[in-house]
Amino acid sequence: MAVLWGGLVVFAPARADSVYLAPADYVKASFPNPPSPKFLWLDKASQARVAEALGHPYPAARLRYWRDGARTLWILDEVGKEQPITAGFLIEADKIIDSRVLIYRESRGAEIRLPAFQKQFAGAGLNDQQKLNVAIDGITGATLSVNAMQRMAEAALILNRLAP
Amino acid sequence: MNSKHRHPGHHGRDHLGVALRRWHRRIGLAGALFLAWMAVSGILLNHSGDLDLGRQELHSPWLGRWYGLGESANTGFHAGRHWLAASGDGAVLDGRPLADWTEPPLGMARAAPLLAIAGAQHVRLLTETGELVETLDASTLPAGRLRRIGESEAGFVVDVDGKSYVSADGESFAAYEGAVRWSAAEALSPAERATLVQQAPGVSVERLLEDLHSGRFFGRGGVWVVDGLGIALVLLALTGFWIWWRRPSPHKRRP
């Protein structure tokens, strides 16, 4: 079920950060009664699975997420070209039901935040090869940001499967 | 029609054409090498992501001095047997670069089994063997400006806008009013300083290409030179267009 949001735009003065939705606000908006965060501890094998999705090592041993029944929420950071992009993914029944660019720090490519691009992830899951089972159309001039978003979507789905 | 009967203004246009052709050649010859360099560097920068030029670093003493990267800190932070110091845009922990850390460190605190390293925007939690546990940011730290970090009996403490918050494991924070040993910069030992010099950061290939492409590598004067090249290219285009437009038409009558 798609979750409908109003637009909240907050501009942060630090660097070129564009805060489209504060992570805490995304958590509150995703759950009727926002739960406390849980912590997923990753062993080496789990880190390797996440690293494969992201295309680079993932050394963090702990990752916080939010769960309410079968629904989980993941907030991830991934570098587009030079700066990290913070994105949120709401997952239920092993499928993305909502995705959002929360904070964008690059100088170009912010078009990935637009609903027309984000709606491509709705209903996306993993195929037998543990890859995203939908084809995502890119945005001219935002290839690196698009790729980062895809990697995070894949990683979020894998983390959802790893979470107890 | 011989030259005596040619329109008086025709001589002027001939002189202008000759002059433009001469300057077109001069500008073209003088700018050929610059043009070639701008084209090559521009193409490389266009594909810097594919070539991963942003992650490839050049380490050279003279390059480090040129970019002001060779200066090492004399002070750092100590927590237990660990030491932390700023290095270039990042930091070095126990003699090893702190991966993906791009802010000056504010301090370090030990809350066994964790080590907490604070910057203005992040607190990184590591095990005492240096393995990353989690990096806390604005969404997971108490709201406000992080000023310093310290140790207490209850865990590590962060000072956010003058208020203290304690955490034993970084999973949650609580207001704290107990005694805190705040982390403060101290002189590095000679061995630590020597290690820091060896860990001086390099310059990415992408950064060097950008600075050479724009002229910034040579300071403001270099930027002006590149600007001049741009103007020269415009003149090249205009003179070239003029030469093409004024070329003899095969359909014109000849005397």
Written overview of the protein:
- The complex is a heterodimer of chains A (164) and B (255).
- Chain A is of the alpha+beta class and 164 residues long.
- Chain A contains 4 helices and 7 strands; from the N terminus they run E-E-H-E-H-E-E-E-E-H-H.
- Chain A has a 7-stranded antiparallel β-sheet with strand order 1-2-7-6-5-4-3, with helices on both faces.
- In chain A, a hairpin with a 4-residue loop joins strand 5 and strand 6.
- In chain A, helix 2 runs antiparallel to helix 4.
- Chain A is globular.
- Chain B is α+β, with helices and mostly antiparallel strands.
- Chain B is 37% helix and 27% strand.
- In chain B, the strands form 4 sheets. In chain B, strands 5-4-3-2-15 form a 5-stranded antiparallel β-sheet, with no helix packed on it.
- In chain B, helix 1 runs antiparallel to helix 5 and helix 1 crosses helix 6.
- The radius of gyration of chain B is 31 Å and the shape is elongated.
- Chain B starts with 7 loop residues before the first helix and ends in a 10-residue tail after the last helix.
- At the A-B interface, strand 4 of A face strand 9 of B.
